[in-house]
Specification:
The chain is 47% helix and 15% strand. It is an alpha/beta fold. The strands form 3 sheets. The protein has a 6-stranded mixed β-sheet, sandwiched between helices. A 5-stranded mixed β-sheet has the order 7-13-12-9-10. A hairpin with a 3-residue loop joins strand 12 and strand 13. It binds one RNA strand through helix 11, helix 12, helix 14, helix 15 and helix 17.
Length: 430
RNA sequence: GGGGAGGUACCCAAGUGGACAAAGGGGGCAGACUGUAAAUCUGUUGCCGAAGGCUUCAGAGGUUCGAAUCCUCUCCUCCCCA
């Protein structure tokens, strides 16, 4: 048995983890894997209500992939049972219970997104309703009887909410129990989760002991900060980068993070070693390296994880084009406008194009100088490399565009919204 | 079951009869600047509009010339007692 290899594997698995309970047991399992060929079962529970995977999730997924590289089995558990009940965590927004169909749809979405990172061949997907429904209410009550209320209330967010006089629904209390039971049913060796899952993971450990199973290793990974650098990354906060977003969007979002946050993303989302990061940091403080270049590189690296190098490069070119060289995008949404009368009120046009949600907002943007336009004499002949400086600022809310076929109008509304409007002079085909 | 405290805009939070489309902070958006959509500074942040108007303070009614503010009922959250 190769002792050195085991140490290496162990190092790799433990890297980035906030906590591993406990490393010794993990080592035992590793040794047994190499000696007897018994793969480690690594478990991750998924909530079927939020099928959009973002960078925050990928930290855990990348860790799971480490297990897969070593030949281990990854078991994803779709928490459809709890999903069927409906989870009103949060305060007054009671989420409606999901139907079978919706859950199935969400699960499918999960699969598609998750396999951008995991190896489908080494991944097993299970639904916890399989065993939880079978348990029946009497079985479930018996299961609950293994825990005490104060035990459950130890969970951080429960006790916090209790202290802050915030509501806790009864069924929220039983979620961790259901999750723990999942571990028993699949006889998990390891369960992974964000640090917010620590309690749930540990509960699984305890329940397994009750069932005379070898307790699972609990690995908690950091919760990724969102684009704002403060709140955790989440869809509802809108500070996230989804794995299905277009390369262009991902690139832009990465470039918008602070220099400080960039290093955090490097550490957690890429394979760049810490020593390298330290070097970069000192180079930046010595002014030998422009942080922007590192950020560009980060953006490309991340895009490559979900797409490929060519698309990453394309996104970079596009970004530089628009924001560094301040040119118009190579491709922008095109629409046609049938102009009968000569003058078109700019606000009406922008509203019709759906570029802004309310008229007041358009007025605001214009007043603040955030709306630009450029008239092209022939829409068949829109110049490719047009600098934004050639555009003119819309002076006031009453501004009217004087254009008709075969002209075209380029609009820039706000920082990122572009539109090419081609004017035609004929009735739409019936 | 009894008693008490609350529900204000995207979020937090002030406001307890008129000067309130509603302080302050966060977030968002825009401008300047730049190294980038970093940082910083400034402005802006219900809707429609030329002025002006319209709809908002958990919901429904009511009192009043006038209500986020007072009254009644309903819904929701929390605390204490049982």
């Amino acid at each position: 048995m190769d002792v050195k290899k085991i140490e290496e594997d162990l190092d790799r698995l433990v890297k980035n983890c906030i906590q591993v309970v406990n490393v010794e047991e993990l080592k035992v399992k590793l040794i047994r894997y190499y000696r007897e060929g018994k793969p480690i079962k690594a478990k991750l529970g998924l909530d079927p209500t939020a099928p959009d995977i973002h960078l925050g999730h990928t930290i855990v997924l990348r860790k799971l992939r480490d297990f897969q590289y070593m030949g281990d089995e990854v078991i994803l558990i779709i928490g459809d049972f709890t999903g069927l009940i409906g989870d009103p965590s949060g305060r007054n927004v009671t989420r409606k219970p999901l139907s079978r169909d919706e859950i199935e749809k969400n699960a499918e979405t999960y699969r598609q997104q998750i396999f951008k990172i995991l190896d489908p061949a080494k991944t097993r997907v299970e639904y916890n309703s399989t065993w939880l429904r079978e348990l029946g209410s009497d079985g479930f009550i018996r299961l609950c009887s293994r825990f005490t209320v104060s035990q459950i209330l130890q969970r951080d967010d429960f006790s916090t909410r209790l202290k802050e006089n915030k509501p806790i629904s009864v069924h929220e209390l039983i979620y961790p129990i259901a999750q723990a039971y999942d571990s028993v049913m699949i006889e998990a060796d390891v369960e992974l989760g964000g640090t917010d899952q620590t309690f749930n993971l540990l509960l699984g450990r305890e329940l397994q002991r009750e069932y005379q199973q070898e307790p699972q290793i609990c690995m908690t990974l950091p919760i990724l900060e969102g684009l704002d650098g403060v709140e955790k990354m989440s869809k509802s906060l809108g500070n996230y980068i989804g794995v299905t977003e277009s390369p262009k969007e991902i690139f832009g979002k990465v470039m918008s993070i602070s220099d400080q946050l960039m290093f955090r993303y490097y550490a957690l989302l890429t394979g760049v070693p810490d020593t390298e990061l330290e070097t970069w940091k000192s180079m930046i403080s010595d002014n030998k390296l422009n942080p922007m270049e590192l950020k560009t590189r980060l953006a490309r690296t991340l895009i490559e994880q979900f797409y490929d190098a060519a698309e990453a490069e394309q996104a970079e070119i596009e970004f530089k084009h628009i924001f560094s060289e301040r040119k118009l995008p190579e491709e922008m949404p095109v629409s046609f406008y049938n102009c009968e009368d000569q003058k078109i009120w700019i606000i009406k046009l922008i509203m019709q194009e759906g570029m802004v949600s309310s008229q007041s907002e358009v007025r605001r943007l214009i007043k603040q100088g955030g709306v630009y336009y450029k008239i092209i004499s022939d829409f068949e002949n829109v110049p490719a490399e047009l600098p934004q400086s050639e555009m003119e600022r819309v002076p006031d809310a009453n501004f009217e565009v004087d254009a008709c076929a075969p002209m075209a109008l380029i609009l820039k509304v706000g920082k990122k919204s572009f539109r090419l409007i081609k004017f035609i002079n004929q009735p739409y085909p019936a």
